[in-house]
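Model it.
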Amino acid sequence: MADHASPSQELDALIVGAGFAGMYQLLCLRDRLGLRVKTLEAGSGVGGTWYWNRYPGARCDTESHAYWYTFDPSLMRDWEWTERYPGQPEIMRYLNFVADRFDLKRDIQFDTRVTAAHYDEAANRWHVTTEHGETYTVKYLITAVGCLSTANVPNIPGLDGFKGDWYHTGQWPHGGVDFTGKRVGMIGTGSTGIQAAPVIAETAEHLTVFQRTANYSVPARNKPLTPEFKQYVKDNAEEIRQATHETLNGHQFKIDTKLATETSPEERRKIYEAAWERGGLQFRAVFQDMMASVEANSTAAEFIKGKIREIVKDPKTAAILSDIDHPYAAKRPPIDSDYFETFNRDNVTLVDVKAAPIQEITPTGIRTAEGSYDLDIIVFATGFDAMTGPMLRMDIRGRDDVALKDVWEGGPLNYLGLQVAGFPNLFTITGPGSPSVLCNMPVAIEQHAEWIADAIAHMRANGLERIEAKPEAMEKWVAEVNAVAGKTLLPMAKHSWYLGANIPGKPQVFMPYAGGMVRYREICEDVKARGYEGFVLA
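Modeled.
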């Protein structure tokens, strides 16, 4: 581990976060541009989101041969994934493999949380402070803090008095949790809860799942990769990279051109059955109009609800699980390994907290409007203050001491998800306003890190000291993000974290860019070709 710095260390650039984004940005700025750069990371190791999210069943929902760095074909050939969907431990091994290969850890300072970053206009420098009281003076500040890294523990009365143990899936103990013989209550049935429930149920004496919002899920059909497939990946590294650059959401599969509304019910059913058997996120790619037409989407929604009712034996439980109030994939579409099957176990109970809300946490468990549940352990699978939370946890102040939290009070104003007017030389990797969470993240991250490195290289080559988004470019871009989202069914999910709806008091604005990674890449390249149009370079 790097030594903690002496006060006021001067650097060309400082990166906050050492996950996929921070590691690649470090490599771009240090090895390609030769900058004096350092990365500060709150965790004790690399991994970012994957360092913290080590809950039972934590697994990627992107297929392994698309969920990695593609900037170096030899790196792709030298690493072998073992499963169709990599689990958290394997992703951590991969990120450590990359960090060691490029000797990144010597410039990453672990166990260091950034608390504040204030811009000094006269000096054109950012003054960054850590929780240890260290300060850094840097020209460029790049946040690589992740979209899903600020845990959301709901404010339920009585938690402080609970006599058992409680955990949030995004802050899981590194030694794990033993559920053997325990009565466990899990709150939340988003992607995380859907992954965790089957694994917890295997060893817990009893698992009670508290569901507010019913969710769709499609089987992952995870399996070990065959030697033939591993060889295929090595032989076709360049083609796989190219494929992820040519698809709407950075995956290795394309969205079919067929329209659900123009396909006969019999043919449609066959297509959905085949997609269900194949498993994974490709389910949402079988029809082009699935995310644009309510009529088309309802065919997928009804198919999945029918599958839930088929799988879950108790009709009352099946009805609660299939009482879904939003279009399919308007919220993050989970994929699972035996989630609905878990409710057929004798030691699993489903509680509908939409019908009977949680009133309080008592010293011995959870009390809802309909009764009390005795518990030894409570697991919060309640997600994150997504997209903006990790940024706003730091006290970021731009020109004239204006706080980012005040600029974002009505929603995250930004230009291209890369910069905010009034905050010169501050870049946000996969910030709100970029495709980020609607995309295969490593693909979005590589594009962002390379664009930022190119912008800094351009400034250095031309003797420029400052780059900052123009307010009018920012306003136009936010309008574009909203307009594009409005052409899809995405804003119809009212409890979605895409809108910030899971956080009380958070402004409800659709945050990611829904126009697709290909279109976004074109826009960014066009902005660059036009001399960084929409930015002031000085």
